[in-house]
Design a protein that fits this description.
246 residues; mainly alpha; Endonuclease Iii, domain 2; Endonuclease III, domain 1; 2 domains; 12 helices; elongated
C-alpha cells in the first residue's frame, strides 16, 4: 500500500480521439497554407525572400581569364550525375593542359580527353558529348544556336541544354533541376511528380521573363537546397514555413 506522502507519476497516452483531432488540425493547416502560397505568395515573393537571405549569387562561376562560354558549356555537360567538386577537378585538368577551348577539344585525342575529365565520372560518354558540343559551337554562330541544336546532341538533355542557353548564351530558358523540383514541391506549389516541361512552364508563366532574374532565381534555389532544403530538410531553421507541411 502506498504511504500518504507517496505518489505515482502517471503518463497519459494520447487517445485515438486526440490523435485524430491532431491529424485533422494538421491536415487543415497544410491545406490552408498551400492555398495561401498558391494565391497570395507569388513566385516573385519567393524569389525576393531567397534574394534577401542569400544575396546575389552571380552565376555561373568561371575561372579568371577563361572563356566563359566554353567553361559554362563544358561545365554543364560535366556536372551531369556528379558533384560540382568533381567538375572543378575536371575543369582544372582542362585548364592545366590548355584544353578549355572548343577547337582544341574537338581536335583532341579522345583517350587523352577522357583522362582529363575522368574526375567528373562517366568520362567515356562525356568526352564524346564535349566533342559534339564543341563541333556545334565551331560550326554555328553562337547567337544562332537554338535549343533544338543542343538537344540533338547525344548526352545533352533539357537541363544541360537550358543551362548552356541561359548561362553561356544569355537566352531566357529557366533551368529545372532536382533542387528546383524539391523546393517547389515542398512549398506545395507543384507536385513532386511534375515533369520537366510542366515545371518550366509553371515558373515562366508566374514570373516575368527576365534573363537576370532567371539566372539568380535558379542559383538561389540551388543555394537554398544546399543550405536548408536538403534531402533531409533543416525545417526548424528555415525561413519558409513549408516545414509544417511535412
Amino acid at each position: 500500500m502506498n504511504r500518504p506522502y507517496e505518489s505515482k507519476v502517471v503518463i497519459m497516452q494520447p487517445s485515438e480521439e486526440s490523435s485524430a483531432l491532431y491529424w485533422i488540425f494538421h491536415s487543415t493547416y497544410k491545406f490552408i497554407y498551400r492555398v495561401y502560397l498558391s494565391f497570395y505568395m507569388t513566385l516573385k515573393d519567393v524569389y525576393n525572400k531567397l534574394l534577401e537571405k542569400y544575396g546575389y549569387q552571380n552565376w555561373w562561376p568561371v575561372h579568371e581569364g577563361q572563356n566563359s562560354i566554353v567553361e559554362i558549356s563544358f561545365g554543364a555537360v560535366l556536372t551531369q550525375n556528379t558533384s560540382w567538386k568533381n567538375v572543378e577537378k575536371a575543369l582544372e585538368n582542362l585548364i592545366k593542359h590548355n584544353m578549355l577551348d572548343f577547337e582544341k577539344v574537338y581536335c583532341s585525342d579522345i583517350e587523352f580527353l577522357k583522362e582529363l575529365i575522368r574526375p567528373a565520372g562517366f568520362y567515356n560518354q562525356k568526352a564524346k558529348t564535349l566533342k559534339a558540343v564543341s563541333k556545334l559551337f565551331l560550326e554555328k554562330p553562337h547567337k544562332d544556336i537554338a535549343r533544338e541544336d543542343l538537344l540533338s546532341i547525344k548526352g545533352v538533355g533539357k537541363e544541360t541544354a537550358d543551362s548552356i542557353l541561359l548561362y553561356a548564351l544569355n537566352k531566357p530558358y529557366f533551368v529545372i533541376d532536382a533542387y528546383t523540383k524539391r523546393f517547389l514541391s515542398r512549398l506545395g506549389l507543384v507536385s513532386d511528380k511534375i515533369d520537366y516541361d510542366s515545371s518550366q512552364s509553371f515558373i515562366t508563366q508566374n514570373i516575368e521573363m527576365d534573363l537576370e532574374v532567371y539566372k539568380e532565381f535558379h542559383a538561389l534555389i540551388v543555394k537554398h537546397c544546399k543550405e536548408l532544403c536538403t534531402k533531409k530538410p533543416k525545417c526548424e531553421i528555415c525561413f519558409f514555413k513549408c516545414e509544417r507541411l511535412s
